[in-house]
């Protein structure tokens, strides 16, 4: 048995109500496959990993990533970094020539989503929001990371969770609800905030066009223990081929 001696945890905090039945069934089926291959599968209680922190991780992530985007992308001025804009004269009136160069470079070089995150990051880093937004998000990240570290050191060797809450959107549908797409990240963001290695393995979903789409199960391991994550992922791949 390939996974003999490995403890795999199913965290109750990630079992949110938005998970559809097909993905919930695939989650249970994957855990059963790991159990059949010698792994010990156990539940991780909400006392170890708080559901409130998992729910708050999404907001904390977008605060932190927007702040980082605002800080890092401020260097793109068209002189030292980034491509110089060609239509400087079309920048907003009332600006100095240097400010016009900055505005034109960032208007041409940044897409809508990048501009949205830069503006959001600039807001959360302002003096009146830094303590209430950025510092609060950083504190949540630290507490969440500590809880995940504790679970992966004291209770289990790896954690199994779904990769996403829904299937990928079809290109022929048109506009996609951005809020819904952001909420879909609730499974991937907590391990990312904690800096943990994660491997997503495609899993067939019952009652879904699996020829076109497959769901995914994420294997989360301790820091610097990628070998455990890869070992579990390899075992799942071998089962799928057999």
Task: Set out the fold topology.
Layout lengths: L6 E5 L9 H16 L3 E5 L6 H23 L23 H13 L2 H13 L5 H26 L2 E5 L15 H6 L5 H6 L3 E6 L11 E6 L5 H16 L1
Parallel strand pairs: 1-2, 1-3
Antiparallel strand pairs: 3-5, 4-5
Helix pairs in contact: 2-4, 2-5
Helix content: 40-55%
- Beta percentage is 5-15%
Number of distinct helices: 8
* Structural classification: alpha/beta
Main pleated-sheet profile? 5 strands, mixed
Radius of gyration: 22 Å
Distance between the termini: 15 Å
Question: Mean of residue pLDDT?
Answer: 84
Shape: elongated
Number of strands: 5
Low-confidence stretches: none
What does this structure look like?
The chain is an alpha/beta fold. It has 8 helices and 5 strands. Strand 1, helix 1 and strand 2 form a beta-alpha-beta unit. The model has no long low-confidence stretch (mean pLDDT 84).
What attributes characterize this protein structure?
49% helix; elongated; 5-stranded mixed beta sheet; alpha/beta; 8 helices
Short description:
The chain has helices at residues 21-36, 51-73, 97-109, 112-124, 130-155, 178-183, 189-194, 226-241, and strands at 7-11, 40-44, 158-162, 198-203, 215-220. It is α/β, with parallel strands linked by helices.
């Amino acid at each position: 048995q390939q996974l003999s001696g490995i403890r795999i945890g199913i965290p109750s905090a990630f079992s949110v109500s938005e998970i559809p039945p097909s993905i919930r069934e695939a989650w249970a089926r994957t855990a059963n496959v790991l159990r059949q291959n010698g792994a010990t599968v156990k539940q991780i209680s909400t006392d170890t990993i708080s559901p409130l922190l998992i729910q708050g991780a999404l907001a904390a992530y977008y605060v932190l990533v927007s702040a980082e985007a605002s800080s890092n992308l401020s260097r793109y001025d068209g002189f030292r970094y980034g491509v110089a804009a060609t239509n400087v004269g079309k920048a907003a009136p009332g600006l100095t020539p240097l400010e016009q160069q900055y505005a034109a470079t960032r208007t041409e070089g940044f897409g809508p989503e990048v501009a949205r995150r830069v503006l959001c990051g600039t807001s959360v880093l302002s003096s009146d929001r830094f303590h209430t937004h950025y510092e609060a998000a950083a504190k949540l990240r630290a507490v969440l990371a500590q809880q995940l570290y504790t679970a992966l050191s004291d209770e289990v060797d790896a954690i199994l969770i779904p990769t996403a809450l829904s299937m990928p959107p079809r290109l022929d549908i048109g506009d996609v609800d951005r809020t819904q797409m952001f909420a879909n990240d609730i499974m991937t963001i907590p391990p990312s905030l904690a800096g943990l290695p994660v491997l997503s393995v495609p899993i067939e979903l019952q009652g879904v066009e699996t020829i076109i789409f497959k769901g995914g199960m994420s294997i989360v391991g301790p820091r610097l223990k990628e070998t455990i994550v890869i070992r579990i992922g390899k075992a799942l791949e071998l089962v799928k081929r057999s």
